[in-house]
Amino acid sequence: MQGNGVYLDYAATSPLDGRVLQAMLPYLREPAGNPSSLHSFGASASEAIEEARGKVAAMIGASPEEVIFTSGGTESDNLGVLGLARANPEKRHVVVSPVEHAAVRECVASLEHEGYEISRLAVDGHGRVDPGDVESALRPDTALVAVMWANNEVGTVEPVEEIAQVCAERGVPLHVDAVQAAGRLPVDTGRVPLSTLALSSHKLYGPQGTGALYVREGVRLAPVVHGGGQERGLRSGTENVAGIVGLGEAARIAGLEREQRVRHERELRDLLIAGVGEIPGVHLRGHPEERLPNNVHLTVEGVESESLVLMLDALGYAVGRGSACASSGHKASPVLLAMGIDEGEAFSAIRITVGKDTSREDVDGFVEAFREAVGRLRDLSPVRQG
Ligand code: PLP
């Protein structure tokens, strides 16, 4: 990875696994066939895509025909949410959690502009949805429910299995964003009766700009991108062959190594939480147990997150603030606000996410740098100086 220092922002993106790069190289070096072409170059590209489809399907307990390749998590969320809504145009009501990634949140907002009625669920102080609330929100005209598997900011894992049961019993489609969960939690579409599920390659040590949407057999979905009819007509456009091959290989490796990675990440995460927890005025946000194994989300009294992220960067540690994807706008994170955290505190949030290549020394060094940065920024704060 380019950049300096120790990378602790795996939730934003993860470095490409060397094995994934090796799998992709032939499709970048050789004349790439268009998978739709009839000649041998086309056939080879098409075979590579089908092999990757099988690998992605295996990671999530699906059959290959249920996997549609896209340009990433954002497009998968768009296809899931808008595709389910457009396939049932007579139903004009959507239920959504308030902690969704912008990719889902903004799709739902666009449906609202079109006249859909939206029920936004509540979450508790840890960011968890109550499956009973989902049940109460369902109506005969509910087109879909969207609740993510695990949150990208605070790391909270949602009770998706119970929510999926509720939706399945009432015959309402459920879209689940599993972009952060895949490769870390046992994401199994055989066990959880959801309808569509979004995946992104670059959170799994695969290349950026590639993703997939799982579409359960029999679920009706309308395309969002129109054109030549690739991907069963659900995602037109010449496929990104090398990217898809990379996603497939990343999914295969994640399936093999998940448990070992999780043990490693959890140990480092807990070490990090214990280390920063000794500093007064530092609070862990998100669920204490039901959280991603690699996520530490903190609010830090008397410190503004942007300054803290920049100072940590200067000290050699790359971490994220509240939400990597929304970090261009200066707005409090809607996720933190929904959890009941006030706006001032929401601006003091930072997210540290470890990964398979993080070491114990990285974490020890980070805790020291964090202590120093927080101390320096508090000394500078006009509030502290009175
Ligand atoms: N959903 C979640 C939960 C995410 O964390 C992200 C990226 O941060 C996305 C969707 C968007 O994925 P992509 O960057 O592949 O478009």
DSSP, total strands: 13
Give the low-pLDDT segments: none
Overall pLDDT score? 95
CATH architecture of the largest domain: 3-Layer(aba) Sandwich
The class by helix and strand makeup works out as alpha/beta
User: Can you write the helix and strand succession as a string?
Assistant: EHHEHEHEHEHEEEHEEHEEHHEHH
Task: Report the sheet with the most strands, covering strand number, pairing sense and barrel closure.
Answer: 7 strands, mixed
Query: In percent, how helical is the residue content?
Result: 40-55%
Backbone CA Rg: 21 Å
Widest sheet: strand ordering = 2-8-7-6-5-3-4
Q: Which CATH top level class of the largest domain fits? A: Alpha Beta
Give a written overview of the molecule.
The chain has 386 residues and is of the alpha/beta class. It has two domains: 6-13 and 258-380, Aspartate Aminotransferase, domain 1 (Alpha-Beta Complex), CATH 3.90.1150.10; 18-254, Aspartate Aminotransferase, domain 2 (3-Layer(aba) Sandwich), CATH 3.40.640. The chain has twelve helices and 13 strands. The strands form three sheets. It has a seven-stranded mixed beta sheet, sandwiched between helices. Helix 3 runs parallel beside helix 4. The longest helix is centred in the last third of the chain and has 37 residues, at 241-277. The radius of gyration is 21 Å and the shape is globular. The N and C termini lie far apart (42 Å). The model has no long low-confidence stretch (mean pLDDT 95). Bound molecules: pyridoxal-5'-phosphate. Pyridoxal-5'-phosphate binds next to helix 3.
